[in-house]
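Long-time lurker. I teach an intro course on protein structure, and each term I like to show students one example going from raw sequence to a predicted 3D structure in token notation. This year I'd like something fresh instead of my usual example. Would anyone be willing to generate the tokens for the chain below so I can use it in lecture? Attribution to the forum is fine with me.
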Amino acid sequence: TSSTFKLPEIEPGFDAWLQGQLAASPADVKDTDEFRYLTFSELPPFTDLHKSLMRKTMTPELFAKLKDVKTSKGYTLSNGMQAGVLRPHLGVGFTAGDEESFELFKEVIYPIVEGWHKFDPNTQEHKSDLDPTKVTMSEEQAALFQKYVKSTRVRAARNISGFSLPAGSSKEDRLAVEGVLKQAFEALPDDLQGTYFPLGGLTAEQESALQAGGFLFQKPGPMQLLGAAGAGRDWPEGRGIFHNEAKTVLCWCNEEDQCRIIAMENGGDVKGVFERFCSLSHAIKGAAEANGKKLMESPNLGFLGTCPSNLGTGLRASVMIVLPELNKDPHKLEEICAGFDLQPRGSSGEHSAAVGAKWDISNKQRIGFSEVELVQKMIDGVGKLIALEEELAAAAAGGAAPAKTPSAPAAGSSSYELPKIGDEAFDGWLTSQLAASPADVKDTDDFRYLTFSEIPPFTELHKSLMRKNLTPELFAQLKDIKSSKGYTLSNSIQAGVLRPHLGVGITCGDEECFELFKDILYPVVKGWHGFDPATQTHKSDLDPTKLTFPEDIASKFGTYVKSTRIRAARNIAGFSLPAGASVEDRLAVEGVLKEAFASLPEPLQGKYYPLGGLTSAQEDELQAGGFLFQKPGPMQLLGAAGAGRGWPDGRGIFHNDAKTVLCWCNEEDQCRIIAMENGGDVKGVFERFCSLSHAIKGAAEANGKKLMESPNLGFLGTCPSNLGTGLRASVMIVLPELNKDPHKLEEICAGFDLQPRGSSGEHS
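-- Reply from a regular --
Happy to contribute to a lecture. Here you go:
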């Protein structure tokens, strides 16, 4: 039988290897006319494009050990790796085909889980708690949630032992799963009773109704994890959608997992939504047990599923909330969310106000915490956001102002306070380290640099790449090294030690740091970017004439794109970066940047606003345009690293008269440069961006300086997450038809290494 299965094109040498592997692969009983499972005869010769944790974990020895292992359902190592081999952009790159996979392939899966979740299933256990009575929400909280929260949603996956997972499923298993789930839906209490819609039997009217409600899911595209893993075989057989009459519970049958369960409603009754979620979970468990089965669950991995990114609770509890006042200060909103391990999602990019002030707030963690704990953290964190929103609204209306940070005390004392991590022993250790730390010339009344006498005794809460890579031997090797500007290893790791939620956990205080501390920085860069600066070089090209943007494409962009924005950072060698800057360096940087702004060509000429000298009218105008940046909060990377010292001296904002270029002076970096405009003239925006970059470079050179740049790291800056180009080029675009099929949109974006951001959560 012929097959319509096509391999992707990745790199010529790798593509040829893939073709050879496909030709030599024996038939697999799970194959279909349009999908083939490959059997890899050797470890794939991964390219630089392959970014997944599977690629990082899979050694020749491990491949040789596991390549002939097969579960009783017929799932192999090659099956599990296939998506990560064929789709280089994937972050995880491995799928499980059944419950046995988690034991037989645990030497691959466990390191992936640790890399993704910072949870070690070899040494830690996961706990589940689906008792909604343990969630506390006072009447006062409930009233405020109803006032501010527009909608609430709780979702997770459930899979039934004895049946394959979708990536490895047979027709028989898929239909058997559907049968068990139908029993579960019939057994639901009256208020959750509804209708099951088989995906293959939908009328046009039913399809339109499900589409309008956002309930319909699509066949996974070939560029997606599920499509490349085989979860789209025999579509749409055995797939379906259930929802109750009130449309407050929804279940997807045989999509990514056997069953995705979702509870939702308009408004802020989080506890009620969680109760329905738990009822759904219990119903599926009961139906499985009535068929002599049980749910896939493990003491150390929690609920099991297709992708290792959704183990543990696999739970995402979210609210859509409108916060007009906090929307003016996204940094403050992000700071509060970070303290409760929440993830805020706006619609305008990182650190930017959301359109309509509407934010999606959800839990970050999936494993290591129970469902009750994650929902409670979401309630408590959102409650804190609402309380602050009310204070800010009252102040804006002329009422009581929100509580201010205490002013700096008299010289000789300090208002600096350590955070409470929540681990008594670690908090005690931090206090003693602070007491023993010698004075640092960079200290201020409200900030202290600690000098760690030993490697920190990190807690399970510490998630950063710095923590992962800093060994006792490496700490001992680097702890007494100091740059000529006075920046130390302790200075650089301070944020990651004091703020466990940070992902990078290390900052640079000047250009020398990248050489002096490269033994810790290079592994962090590799872990974050999948780029190895020890063996690879970075290239820069700021020639906008090389962009191709034909008239017909430009016309389409003009029709669909609402706004375009390009940003990056530039730093000047010889001056400290903000996390380690002295007052003198900060003011000197400001002076060089003012020269750069004065030398811009006429269309980019504008005005520089020193942050400490703004009038009320100027502050309101900058705030309204989204141009104003705030002092970094203590829970943020920059605040914990010392980049907020001496605020607001030496900081400022430049924009031209047309408001199509914007520069921030001495925020995260010495200069953040931003070019933007309404509409879709990407090439024009990039031209302005390049002009800004060249002007800053020219002003630096006129002062006998140069930009901080390195052959293997590109443009240098405070945080290792923003090296290389450090560039983010984005458009805000309206796509009504593609909006009906987010999977298709994501698939196309993935093919061009693009990141789509909506405002309603993942795949929505």
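Some talking points for your students: The chain is about 35% helix and 15% strand. Residues 401-413 have pLDDT under 50 and may be disordered.
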